[in-house]
Amino acid sequence: MSKQPLSDYKEFRKVLKEAQNIVVLTGAGVSAESGIPVFRGVGGLWRTHRATDLATLEAFKTNPALVWEFYHYRRDIAFNSYPNTAHKALALYEKICKEQGRKFCIITQNVDGLHRKAGSENVLELHGSLQKVICTKCKQIEINMQNPICEALRGRGDPNEEQDLPVIPVDDLPKCTKCQSLVRPYIVWFGENLDPDVLNKSSKGNLYKLAICVS
Ligand SMILES: [Zn+2]
Prior knowledge:
single chain; SIR2/SIRT2 'Small Domain'; elongated; transferase; metal-binding
């Protein structure tokens, strides 16, 4: 088993065929083909805001409505996007591995849910998910596939508005079903730590013999 990165396709196929434990790491590049914005570099702007400035707890505390508008925009794109050939190939390969009794896992930085939409089952979402929310008070995590997530966000989130629209009152933003407090997107923002559970499961990836990086 080579510990060097493989650039030889033939050799790669051989190693892949023999591998019993496979982990695939994916990032934004996989979803770009499905039309998911990457939000990197100069193009990383939403209206006049840098996406990286909106994806912080400070931004949410200062202006939860604006951050929710940004995430409504991102959810809307993700929910209306379809898995591409790469997502489908990985889902198919997982199925094949399962039938052959081999282990297969995807560890992704993507939050768009497209791996699961393609049929992948063993997926660890390192940076959270646009399909989930977490309560700011009781910390309950819920799956929420509603689009828009609340009526106040309907028609909002357009990245091309020249300026921000009037702020939505906090009372009209998405609420926790358990305690009725404000929820936020279940996303690991800049400056936050990864979910220890997810991290723990991912680190078991060290036990995997073959790691494939698709970024
Ligand atoms: Zn709650």
